[in-house]
Structures are given as C-alpha cells and as structure tokens.
Design brief:
The protein is an alpha/beta fold and 376 residues long. It contains twelve helices and 14 strands. The longest helix is centred in the N-terminal third of the chain and has 18 residues.
Length: 376
Amino acid sequence: MTKRITHWIAGQQWSGAPAERQGEVHDPATGAVTALVDFAGVAEVDRAVGAAAEAFRSWSRTSVARRTSVLFAFRELLNARRDELASIIVSEHGKVHSDALGEIARGQEVVEYACGIPQLLKGGYTEQASTGVDVYSIRQPLGPVAVISPFNFPAMVPMWFFPIAIAAGNTVVLKPSEKDPSAADFLARLWQEAGLPDGVFNVVHGDRTAVDRLLEHPDVKSVSFVGSTPVARHVYETGTRYGKRVQALGGAKNHMLVLPDADLDLAADAAVNAGFGAAGERCMAVSVLVAVDPVGDDLVARITERMARLKVGPGCNGDSEMGPLVTGAHRDRVTSYLDSGTADGATLVVDGRKHPVASEDASGESTADGFWLGPT
C-alpha cells in the first residue's frame, strides 16, 4: 500500500479520509512513487488557520522564558536527529546526504538565533523625544502567520522563518512544496516532542488552492514566501491586497564574471561547485558565467576537466557529489535547455545526458531509472 502524507493540524496528523486531490512523491534516484500527498482544499486550510488562531490566544501570553525553553529543546532534538531528517530530504529531493546536512545546519543557525529572543524582543524608551513627549517602542506578536516554502530546501527555508515567528509569540501554518513534503511533518513532530503546545505549528500540504486560501484568509496576519519570481509576485500582490505583511523572495541565480587576470584554477573550482551542487537547484547556483577575452577557452577546458571527476550517484551513497533532479518534469525542462542552446549556436562541450549512472540499450537510449542528468 502506498504511503500517505497528510496535514499536521492542532498537534496531530490529519485523520480524515484521503483528499480528493493528491500528488505523487517520488524517489528521484529511482523514479519510483514512494507516497501520495494530500492536497488541502479551503476546508483543510481553514481548519489549520483556526487551530493556529486558537493556540495564539494562549501562546502569545506565554512568558518569554517559557517560549525560549521550548526553542532550546527543539534545537537539541534537531541536532540529535539531523541524520534522520537529512535522509528524508535525500529520499524526496535527491540531494546528497552531506548537502542535506549542510541545509539543516543553516536552518539550525536560525533556531539558535531565535533562542536569544529575550534580548531580541526588548523594546525601547526615549524620554523627552520632543518637549513633554516620551516615546515607547514595544514588540508584540501578530497572530497566525503563514510560511510558503520551495522544494529545493525543504528544511532550511522554513527554518528561516518559523523559529523567529514562534519565539516571538506567533503561531504558524507552513505550506511546504508538494514535491518533498515529509521534512515539514518531521519538523512538526520535533516541535511536539520539544513541548510546543498543539496548534502553534501546523502543516498543510497542497498546491495553489492552499496558497491562495492562506493569502486570502482574514486570520492570517503575515506571509513569508520563497520561490519563483512569478509566484513571488502573485503572493506579494495578493497578500498585500488582503492587508497582510508579506515578504516574498523571488527566483535568484548567480552570475559569475571571470576577468583576464583571474586565478583560473580557483575560478574553475568555484564554477563547478556552484553550478552542480544540489544538481544546480540552489537559489544561488551559478547558471551564467561570463569570461572576458582571452581566458574563455582555457577556463572552459579547466571546468570540463573538473566536471569529469564529479561523482554522480544516489544521494544516499556517501561518496556521491551530485544526485538526480527532483522530478522528471524538471529534468526534462533542464534537458530542453541543451537543445535550445545548441539550436541558438552554442557548442555543447559536455553532454550530461550520457553519464555514469545511466546505461544504454541496443539503440543507444538511456535505460536509467530516476531523474538523472549529469553535469553539462
């Protein structure tokens, strides 16, 4: 029987019937369907926001000392079980285990920052700011807040936001990517083990239906988003139209410029590490490199030599340096860039469609399962 991934609402896994709409979750290394994830409709989102609103009444009045103690407990649990969480990320995203551990470490930094919330929440007082006028500033929780996170960092990006929100006395509804949803449910269970009251942290899975309901819901006071630029624009425009505070971080890819006096070995190392780490699915991956004459051909040769040494394989293998892409559709879209590039006159120096993971049948077609595209 296929595993079912469903929502975490008010401190427990959703026990209702499977959703009418579900999405497939794959192991990118094999292409196998490993689970079906429920897609929330308006009713499920409303239930999660309602749980967050109810929990906010008491959590917002909980002492800073008590909230901090929960944060410290969560930190310890996350540190103790980081390998387990990394394995979940590898199984659904495809990145290598060491990369997944690095993602968790970056998220843990924000958790540790939130552990200092007593100092961060301090207000201020200015006497006689103007004649006979004293000025106070205080920091108060907003209420239920939403986090909408992308597939490429299923643990780190949510942890950019929810530790601060929770430590400050808010409650959270997280909508993770439907491509790799299990990390969010794992984090929800860690929060419960850490002593977080039910309803303070909730997870709803789904697609645009769930996103739009979060953006429109009158009880959601703010929205934090990371994803593509078109969706960021939609989130920002819709959320602010409904009077919410919104931070919407749109798509980002680095551009690298190599000047003629550059250390070309250092530049080649940087280009390969940035271009192929996490199969190029990082926000900060270098997707465009501009080499100023006359170093271009030399730089391409050095990059090509380094690419040949990259170990491509399943993320669960300890020596793999680059895993598969997250879905077959994403792999096919990236592959299409090779065809469009050569059609526009580019030279394809390394063709990742033929790589160490794949084998070929008699016709020369790849027989590899999984969503593989080698360094290209």
